[in-house]
Structures are given as C-alpha cells and as structure tokens.
Here is the input.
Amino acid sequence: MEIGVSYGTAVKLGLIRASAIYPPNTAYLLLGRKCVNNCAYCSLARRENTLSRVLWPPFPLGMVREALEKVKFTRICVQTADYPGMEEDLLRLGGELSKFPNLTASVSPRPRAFLSELRDSGFTGVGIALDAASERIFEAVRGRGVGNPFTWEGTWRALAEARGIFEDVATHLIVGLGESDVELYDTIRRALDMGLHIGLFALTPVVPGMEAPDLGRYRTVQLLLHALKHDYLEDVEFSDSGRILELRLRRSAWKFLRDGSFAVTSGCPGCDRPFYNERPSGPIYNFPRAPGRPLLSEVTLYARVCVGSGDCWSTAP
Ligand code: SF4
Here is the structure.
C-alpha cells in the first residue's frame, strides 16, 4: 500500500532531502491519488496527488510508518480522496498506525456504523468538511450543483453522529467561496455549539476563475472565530448585505491582538498546516505559530474594531 505524504511532512520525516522552513507538528498523509467527487474548488478532483497548493508524493506505507517511529508529531491526520475501496483501505491504515497518538481521519460524510469502525480500527478523531459556510454555497460548490451526493444537513448529521463517537471532531470552513460574513458567523456559532474544532481555510485558487479572499476580510473572520471560541466577542455589527462592519471585543482580547495569535492556524489541537493555503513568501493567511506582532491593522482595513469600553480603530473605507 502507498500513501501520499505532504511535502513538509516528508521533509521532516527524512523521506525527502530538503530543509523545511517550518516543520509541521502534525503529520499530514493522503489516502488515494484522485477523488471521484467534483467539488468546484478542489484540485484533487482534477489532478492526482495535489490538494490545495500542497504536493503529496507517494511512499510505501511501511517506510512511512518506520519514519514516524523516529520523528515526533503531536497528531497524524489522514486526508482521504473518495474512490472505490477507500473505506477498507482507511480501516487497514487505522490498524497500521493505531500505536501513534491522536490519529485523525478527514473524510466525506459517512454512516454512523463506519465511523464506529474507524474508531475501533485505531482512529481517535475525525474531520468531516462542510467547506461552504451556508446551504446556498454548499449546494453550488460541494453538493448537487456539481453532481456530488453530499447535502448540507446530511453533513451536519454526520458531524453530530461523529460527536457521539469521537472526542476530537473537526469541520473545515473555506473563506472565499462566495459566502457572506453573516453566513460564516452563523455556521461558526453552530459548529462551536456542537463542540467541533473548526479548521479555517482561505480559498486557494487552484481552479481557474477563483480568487483567494481579501486578506483584511480573512483576518476579520479569524478574529471573529477566535473571539467566539475564547469568549471575548461582545458584539458584532453587520451591514444589510451581511458584511461585518464592526467587531466589539472585551478587554481580554488584547493578549491575542498583541502577538497576532488570533491568526494562528485553527482546527484540531496541534494542527498547524504550514503554507497549506499560501506560498512561504506570503501573504500568510494562517500562521503555524503566533507571528509575534499585532495584526490589528490588517483587520481594520476591512472592519472597525473596538476593544474594552471605548477605543475603536478603523481604516476601512
Ligand atoms: S483540522 Fe487539521 S488535523 Fe483536524 S481534520 Fe482538519 S486538517 Fe486534520
């Protein structure tokens, strides 16, 4: 059996001789070379061994397992393409990697019985991507609009069932698929209320005609997610069209604003995905660790931010 290994993971494992700018904390593997689904924004539906902007060179599983024994990762995350026989391969992989801690499978919505089998095989967590922030967008880019079998509510149902089986359950949300900010807000709240980890992604324009989101907007959504998660959002004001106009934060926000830690990669604990969405030369959407500088000026290019009782900043038009 062969398994794709993300380029950065392969370098850290010593499978590729190169130097890594930021060796990842999580080992990212890819099961399957090409996906039978047709998500409008995804490279794996179109080209082998590419997901987002990352290359996933294949290696024999035994070689990868041996290398994983020598190098420390806090988590292993197996991304999956859908193909005939994938479920059997994934269960086998769970058995092969079960001795490693925090083994996560990122899959499309699956029946409860299969999720239980996944846990029994050795996986400790699961990710089931929504990707889209609303039913409207989901239908157009991930659901029936592109001929896929997935539905919005079916994905939420699978996430709820996964929560009954696994401690770590994640979903992914992509900013830049045509959603409004208020749609992102509603979906982030619903996911947090269910106890899900949220991996926030900037659309990586690997498909012609698509564009990466505006950096100011992405920073604002990162701050919104972080503030909801860490309970320092006091209020948010939207325009009639659902655009964020103002974020009002409690004073405790300062510790995350000062070092930019609100813009660190979000998702399962330990998931850092260095340069998954962006070239190392930038602009950086998700920082694998706190950048150590305030990023408030990037947020205020898009929205007004108020902290504590009265100080507000805005350079937004
Ligand atoms: S948040 Fe990270 S570790 Fe969790 S399923 Fe997504 S990519 Fe994997």
